[in-house]
Structure formats: structure tokens, C-alpha cells
Amino acid sequence: MRELTYYVAVSLDGFIAGPDGQFDAFLAEGDHMGPVWARYRGTAPTRLAEAVGLEVDDGPFDTVLMGWNTYAVGLPDHHLASPYEHLRQVVFTRTHEAPSGSDAVRFTDADPVETVRALKQEEGKSIWLCGGGALAATLADEIDRLALKINPVLLGGGVPLFGPRGYAPRSWERTGTRAFDSGVVLAEYARRPEAAR
């Protein structure tokens, strides 16, 4: 069965973006970039990766999931209606229409949990949840792995790693930690078997 991995940059105080979706406080340069890309190849928008000479093939994921706000980061200023052309793209939204040029993106108002369970039954590589926090909260019981790029910054507010979901402790097992001179720490976790559905 395929796994769902929530791979995302996060601040020291637990935010994945600022109040208006800002993410420019996260480090885009440093000694963490090469090793993190080698581990999670293919997790940059296709055109951006090509522009800086990064290969997007042979990564751990073949499908990317996101909520509308995460998807809309590339709209309209960057004109990235299909940001991850090299991956199967699914955007969960109940209120937005697909923009022009987004034919390769599946927009759905279907239940995210049911959608993920169906995707997990298919053949293929792992599934990447790239945001946002509300979608992560909805899918908390379906997430098999966490891969957090912890950045040495406090945002003070914004989009939390997991949106509100009520008190429900879930145990995770650390599978890897790597600290870089840049201050970024890549922390990886797997759901503990006893916490599995």
C-alpha cells in the first residue's frame, strides 16, 4: 500500500506560512538544500526546478495533494496553473473554479480522507501532502510519515502545521534527524504501529 507523507517547511513555532501565505522567511539557500533535495527530489514546482537545473525524475512521490490556498501560491503572479507538471496533482477545494491552463490538475470537492484511501490502494510511489494545515488536520489519521524541514525562524502567527482538530494525541517514531549549519533540521517520523487506524 502507498504511504502518505506530509513533507513541508515549518517554523520553530509551528507555522508553515505567514497569515497571508507568506513563506519567504524560510531559508532557500544553505548547506541543507542539496541533501534535502537528494532525499525529496521532485518537490519543487517543475518550471522552477528546470530553471535552476534540478532534476525532478526519480523522486519518492508520484502524486501531490494540496488545499486551494497552497495551490494558489502560484496564482496569479507566477502563472503556475499546473505547478507540479511532473506529478499527478490533486487540489481539494469546495469553492474555487479551476483556472485556465490547469488541465493537468484535478480539482475536487470530494472527501479528502476517502480520496487518500483510494489513492493508497493504487499502484505507484508515495503520495506527498504539501499543504496546507487545515487539510493536514483533516488527513491526520491518514498520514503515515512526517518530513519536517524545521527552519530557524519564529513567524509568530500564520498557517499552523496542523489546523484545529481537537485534542487527540497521536504517537510518532523518529526515523531520522539531520541538522545543518544553515540552522535547518530535517526531522522525519513514522506513525507508531499502535497508533495506526
UniProtKB/TrEMBL annotation:
Q: Which Gene3D superfamilies match?
A: Dihydrofolate Reductase, subunit A (3.40.430.10)
Classification via Pfam families: RibD_C
A GO biological process held by the record: riboflavin biosynthetic process
Domain Bacterial bifunctional deaminase-reductase C-terminal as annotated: residue spans: 4-186
> Its Gene Ontology molecular function terms?
5-amino-6-(5-phosphoribosylamino)uracil reductase activity
Can you name this protein?
Answer: Dihydrofolate reductase
